[in-house]
């Protein structure tokens, strides 16, 4: 019998977005890709993404990328 690791999901919240925000108040292309947001982001992308879920690993990488240009 195969065993598979559980896939932990994180809800995209305003707190998560704030944690990943740069000092200038923005997000990188790489960060938005982790959230599933196309580049360039369309107007209203923040409201559209709130409440959706992403893998926990993507959320962690999103926060780690604060202030970096690329993955």
Question: Strands, helices and their partners?
Answer:
Blueprint: E1 9-11, H1 14-19, H2 29-35, H3 45-49, E2 53-55, H4 56-64
Antiparallel strand pairs: 1-2
How would you describe this structure to a colleague?
The chain has one domain. Helix content is 38%, strand content 8%. It has 4 helices and 2 strands, in the order E-H-H-H-E-H. Strands 1-2 form a two-stranded antiparallel ribbon. The longest helix is centred in the last third of the chain and has 9 residues. It is globular and about 30 Å long. The N terminus is likely disordered.
Beta strands, count = 2
**Nearest-angstrom radius of gyration?**
13 Å
* Rough outline: globular
**What's the overall average pLDDT, rounded?**
89
Could you list the spans in which at least 5 consecutive residues all have pLDDT below 50? 1-5
Could you give the order of strands across the largest sheet?
1-2
Terminus-to-terminus distance? 36 Å
Number of structural units classed as domains: 1
Q: How many DSSP H or I helices? A: 4
**Which structural class best describes the helix and strand composition?**
mainly alpha
N-to-C series of helices and strands:
EHHHEH
Helix percent reads: 25-40%
Largest sheet: 2 strands, antiparallel
Beta-strand portion reads 5-15%
Describe this protein with a few key phrases.
71 residues, 38% helix, globular, two-stranded antiparallel sheet
Question: Could you write a compact summary of the structure shown?
Answer:
By secondary structure, this protein is mostly helical.
